[in-house]
Amino acid sequence: MQTSPATTLSTLVLNPDELGPDPLTGMDLAVQLGIGQLEIRSAEGANALTLSDERLKRIRALADERGLTVAALASPLWKWCRPEARPGRVDSFGFPTQVPPGERLGWVERAIEVAGILGAPVVRVFSHLRVEPELTEQFAGDPLLATALEAAHRAGVRLLLENEPVCTVAHAEGLLEVLERYHGQGLGLWLDVANLHEVAQASPDVVRALSPYVGYVHIKDFREAEGGRRSFCSAGMGCVPYTELLPELHAACPALPYALETHVRDTPAAALRAGAAFLRSTVPGGLA
After folding, report:
1. How far is 86 from 15, CA to CA, in rounded Å?
2. What stretches of the chain show up as alpha helix (H) in DSSP?
């Protein structure tokens, strides 16, 4: 089983859909920035899980032509609730948030197929949306999780759980409980450092505790705005304490992929350029 897109050196990863629906724009920027790996979440205006095999193979071919590989499939698995539940505003990149339980295994199988077509060694998962208390589902103990981990193992890919505040497992205590329970079956951590900061847990102690499970790192940054809102900005320009945390993470895990996820709408290319420069200067030893 592959555990990470990187084996000897920490690397940068770029998600082309940060620049719009045409994956070529982001791929060409990756080449310009000397970034050799991509994260695929959506393309051509659709979630990757809903794209046909032919469209996925075209994306893979476009990446191959530019010497790029796919480091991860940023799937929306488990960022869902039952149809009778009422989720709040959720960014799921073109994927439904209300999914009947009987349809979920099919989406798990499709995600593993998509990862195979793209050549992605890891697939992101979430932990059920937090909805009305009586309808909120629990991730730990979900029979589908054990089935998915077994299927992923057979396919040679790994499932990584993202700490997402709108989902049920976002704080360190819950993450450690789930990861300790399922790590032996292949589950790892898709660590979003800004999400840790959002739940007031972006500390060196928490990063060290989570580090044995980390297989992938999401990097975005934001400034606090009026009304408790967040204003996204280039990595290193906001309030997420990356200069304190990334050396700690590197000391524990010296070979990780760091994926830029800016959410900066007006000037995404400039934000990605600035973020790449910041990470290369902040992670000890630099990034390939």
Report:
1. 29
2. 23-32, 53-65, 101-118, 143-155, 172-182, 193-198, 204-210, 242-252, 268-282
Separation between Cα atoms, residue 163 and residue 201, nearest integer Å: 11
Tokens of 198: 């959002």
CA 210/CA 150 separation, integer angstroms: 23
Q: What does pLDDT average to in each consecutive run of 10 residues of the chain (288 residues)?
A: 52 97 97 98 97 98 98 98 94 94 98 98 98 97 98 98 98 98 98 97 98 98 87 97 97 96 94 97 92
CA Rg value for the chain: 18
For residue 209, CA distances in Å to 59, 169, 218, 249 come to 37, 16, 17, 10
Query: Which residues does residue 265 pair with via DSSP β-bridges, in sequence order?
Result: none
3-state class of 163 per DSSP? coil
The predicted structure's pLDDT at residue 8: 61
Task: State residue 2's pLDDT score.
Answer: 40
Spatial separation of the C-alpha atoms in residues 285 and 11, rounded to whole Å:
11
- Domains, the chain, with CATH or none: 11-282 (3.20.20.150)
| β partners of residue 268 | none
Specify the pLDDT at position 89: 87
For residue 113, count other CB atoms closer than 10 A to its CB.
Answer: 14
Mapped onto helix, strand or coil, the DSSP state of residue 161 is strand
